[in-house]
Structures are given as structure tokens and as C-alpha cells.
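Board notes (copied after class):
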Amino acid sequence: MKKTRRDRQQDFWLWLLRPLVYLWMSMDAKRSVVRSPSVDFRRREPFVLLANHTCMFDFVHVPMRFHNVPFIIASQTLFAQQPAKFFVTQLAHVIPKSKGKSDSSTIFRIFEAVKKNYPILIFPEGDITFFGATGHIEEATMKLIKKLNLDVITCNVRGGYFSRPRWAIGKRRNRRLELVYDLAISKADLPALSIEDIGQIVHKHLAHDAIEYQRQERIPHPGRRLAEGIENILYICPECLAVNSFKSERNAFFCDHCHQSGHVDRYGFLHGFAFDNPRDWDHFQRQHQDILLASHLNTTGMLYYIHPETESHDLIGKVTLEYREGAFILSGVIQKNIPATAIETPILTIRRNFSFRYDDRHYLIKLDQGGMAFLRIAQSKY
């Protein structure tokens, strides 16, 4: 299958800008690359590249090692906001995907890219980790691998979570990444493997616990605002069980209900509360879903209507998002009462952009506070 004019244009820009991208990558983080002998960065034939998702710029660091740069499967919401929209539509090879939803057009475009001899990059978690451990991987990815019948190369990304936590507002210094590439499954072995076999192999190669990695490596990431943004993911206080009560400033954070305070150290660990890391704290939060569902929450934000078919969005305006008695209530530029059980494909993008479908409309609310509590009310998978 021949490449389109757009394919050739993107190939040209990627070739032309590669030195600048490499320069940016070296400034973004100190990288170490570990590659098994079975992985050839200059290979020309297509393959499937899988990686765990630890930080925002994994989608640059992971594929750019390869001479034949893969098509990246990326969230549909990236196509609605600048400057990401310009990058993913004009420069990089990207195929849009609606998270949590089967998309036949996405599958068609993947096979089309492979026929043009392009590799495919998939982050099978579907999202950047909020809490540091490799998350849920959909079975649909394993089925796709089986159908594509290509070599499967994995990249285990280590160090990204503490270098650039997804929830954080403040920057860290001394950012580091370790990229470990391996041939997880050869094309010749795929026919004999079941979907379950493929899943076990993929999980083994992509499993990473950033908390335990950092306990061992003790890489310092100093900064002046290490705690700011932690209220984006921590929503139940272990001292008083208040919901969405945290405030943060510089390296400190506290519960606005019981006034218990803590701080984040230069290694990324928490002090002052029962848990020293977000992973264990989230395990605790998940045990109190009943408290969350019985709570009354509210925040403000900017509302957008997303149009996936045209990769565009409309700014509607300022809204208040409230949750009480099993429903999300929007007020401000629009008035709407949405039962939590009627929401489809709820996700968080970036830090606290809450996106969902309801009544055949795609909503995106850039929340001013929190986010994880609203997501967990709508669904508890992620």
C-alpha cells in the first residue's frame, strides 16, 4: 500500500526535526537505554511496540529510538487542544483512539499503517499512571496483537513517574529515564499463543512499580513545589475520612478538615500521614468507595463539547460541577443533571481534565480542583 502525501510530509518533518527532538529529549531527562540483542533500532519491517506509561513525554522518548518511527495510538482528546493538536496532526504519525471504547476506525487505520510498512506504538494501559504502578491492560490489545501477527517489542520505562508525576504542578530537577527494550514475542511464535498467553507475556515485560524502584534507586528530584497538585489524586484523608479536603502549597500539603499536615521530600515520598506514597494511599482510598459515593463534592471548570469525527471542540464556558445523591450536576452556562450511572467512557486526561459521554454528547471539563474523586464516582476501574 502506498504512503499518502500526508505520510510523506510527516516522514520528512520527522527526519528534518530529529536532531532537534534528540536535543530536547536530552534536556527533558537524562536517559539510559538498555536493549536486548534481539532489538534492532534500524529495522525497517513493521512491528508492534508496547510500553508502560509513566509520564507525559513517554510518547516521544519511547519511539524516537527507532529509525522507522511508529504510528502512535493516542487519546482522542489530544486532538482537541493546542499545541498537542498541531504536533499529533501535522508532525507525528498518530492514530486517535477513544479510551475505554471499541473503535473500528482506529483498528482500520492501524492495519492501514502496517500495510504501509509502519510500526505501531501502543501504551496498553491507555493512560499515564497516576499512582506509580503499571495499571490495567485491556484484553483488546492482546486480540489486536494476535490479528496483526507482527513481532512484539516492549519498552519498560523506569524513573519517569518520580521525574514528572502526572498529578504534579511543580517541576522536578534531575529528571531521569531508563528505557529497557526487549523482543517479548516473535512473529513466528504468535500462532501458537492464546490471548491469555500473550497477556501474561505482555504483563511480565511491562510490569513496573515506580515506588519500589525509587526505594531502591533513591534518585533525588529536588524542587520548590513538590507537593502542589497532590490533591488531584488524593481524595480521602486517612486521619478523618474527609473527601476532597486537601490543599497544597510548595512542598507541603494538609487536610482542610482535620488540619493534619505533611510534606513531599526530594525523593518523592510523603511524610506526615499514614502512607508514604500515592500507591498505598490509593489502595486505602479504594476501600472507602461507600464514603465517596455518599459525599457532596463541587468544583468549577471550563466546559467544552468535543467532536471526535472532526477532531475539534467548542468552548461552552465556565461551569460548576457538583456531585450529590448519585448525580453530576452542571450549572453556569448550562444546566444539566446527569445520573452517574448514565455516564459513558469517563476518563481523566492531563491532570484533571474530566471527559465523558452522555446522551450522545462528548463532554470535557477542565476542572479547577481535584479530578480523581469525580472519576472514581463515575467508574472504579482506573
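Comment from the instructor: Residues 71 and 93 are 5 Å apart (CA to CA). The chain has three domains: 5-217, 230-287, 292-378.
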